[in-house]
Write a structure and sequence with these properties.
Layout (H helix, E strand, L loop, with lengths): L5 E2 L2 E2 L5 E10 L5 E10 L2 E10 L7 H9 L2 H6 L1 E7 L4 H6 L33 H16 L2 E6 L7 E5 L2 E3 L4 H21 L2 E4 L3 H6 L6 H7 L4 E7 L7 H17 L22 E5 L7 E5 L6 E2 L4 E6 L5 E8 L4 E6 L4 E2 L6 E6 L5 E3 L2 H4 L7
Parallel strand pairs: 5-6, 5-7, 7-11, 8-10, 9-20
Antiparallel strand pairs: 1-2, 3-4, 4-6, 8-11, 12-19, 13-15, 13-18, 14-17, 15-16, 17-19
Helix pairs in contact: 1-8, 5-8
The chain binds zinc ion.
Zinc ion binds next to loops.
């Protein structure tokens, strides 16, 4: 990748950290929403690494990771270029809400996908201004990026972990399957370098149904086939300094793995790193079968066996209800508790990492494949 990178109003310069703006969209009040840019370039040639944060406005740890990471000392030692965007959803960050007030939809489900362009039928809503801005940014990103990490927060008190997407391929195309497998092996190496607990996303059917192929990292990985993952940084509205520190160390380790830093890898300290010995994927489980008040007995990072009691169930007066307890249906790790204690039937009380029975690559579901654009 060449070093003559220009993005928004910033031109990268060797040995410098430069700051600027990417004009994203215009509000009806005439105000222009911009994404803040930080472009840090080393003196030596090397890869281009994109680091993004703040796409969910209530997840505010990611920007702090970028500020702590991007120092003159780092740039002095760096090979290649880092393009960082600390605020992909400025409106949500202002109002401290997941979605922006001007587009009431999850912004991390708006990135380009492998499906053919949608119809211009007059009854279909056209893309929002935000979606159009992500489309433009995606073009810039995928022309320059060799790697991407997108920083998020999961739940209050949740584990600091890396979320890995299963790489999807066209089921009838063995060459595409081979390419997906090669990319998947490299992604495993990248995640190993990050040094945190690694959790694979839902199986392909659920992944597509929930539009997770249209997250920032999902889109870049699936459509552009550029190595990318999501870093989950625990509590969003009161960032944990230990997690920020561990995420910075993990990111520098990934930069070392990518050949962008020469020094020794750092230990990931003060956060729990769980190595199960088998691949795990995320699952919302267990779910309560009746309306109840839940007293959780486990927390993020705890290992749970199948059949273990994970919570007590009470009625609103505090009396035991149902069996009085709920047990885990799976062996695994607790990633976090669902927020609150008052639950309706069918709601999950935990998010867990459980044994992943599927491969790290998967064919696109048939119904999706039928609407995809032809292979390039
Ligand atoms: Zn998020």
């Amino acid at each position: 990748m060449g070093m003559d990178l220009k993005i928004g109003d910033v031109t990268a310069a060797p040995g410098e950290i430069r700051y600027g703006r990417w004009d994203a969209l215009e509000h009806p009040t005439g105000h222009v929403e911009f994404f803040p840019l930080i472009v840090a370039q080393g003196h030596r040639e090397g890869p281009c690494f994109w680091l993004t944060a703040g796409v969910h406005g209530s997840e505010q740890a990611g920007p702090l990771v970028l500020y702590e990471l991007l120092t003159p000392d780092l740039v002095a030692r760096l090979r290649g270029t880092i393009v960082a965007i600390p605020a992909l959803n400025p409106a949500g960050l202002r109002t401290r809400t997941r979605d922006p007030y001007h587009a009431k939809v999850d912004p991390n489900r708006l990135w380009p996908e492998a499906k053919a362009d949608r119809s211009d039928h007059p009854d279909f809503d056209p893309p929002t201004s935000l979606e159009l801005s992500y489309q433009r940014l995606y073009e810039k990103m995928t022309h320059s990026a060799d790697y991407l990490i997108d920083y998020h927060n999961a739940w209050i008190g949740s584990l600091s972990f890396a979320l890995r997407d299963r790489i999807l391929y066209r089921g009838d195309d063995t060459e595409d399957q081979d390419r997906a497998q090669a990319l998947s092996d490299k992604l495993d190496d990248m995640l190993k370098a990050y040094g945190h607990t690694v959790v694979t996303e839902y199986p392909a059917e659920t992944y597509i149904k929930e539009n997770l192929h249209r997250t920032t990292s999902g889109s870049v990985l699936q459509r552009a086939r550029i190595l990318a993952f999501t870093a989950e940084l625990g509590t969003g509205m009161a960032p944990d300094p230990k997690i920020i520190k561990a995420a910075c160390a993990g990111t520098r380790n990934v930069l070392r793995w990518a050949g962008m830093l020469d020094d020794q890898a750092e230990a990931i300290e003060d956060v729990r790193v769980i190595r199960t010995g088998y691949p795990v994927r995320r699952m919302r489980t267990p779910r309560v079968s009746e309306a109840c008040v839940v007293r959780h007995l486990v927390q993020a990072g705890d290992r749970v066996g199948k059949g273990d009691v994970v919570a007590e169930l009470r009625d609103v007066w505090g009396r035991a209800t149902g069996n009085g307890v709920i047990r885990s249906g799976y062996e695994g790790i607790v990633l976090g508790r669902s927020h609150g204690v008052f639950f309706y039937p069918g709601q999950p009380i935990l998010v867990m990492a459980v044994r992943d029975d599927d491969a790290s690559i998967a064919p696109y579901p048939r119904h999706y494949r039928e609407s995809m654009r032809p292979s390039p």
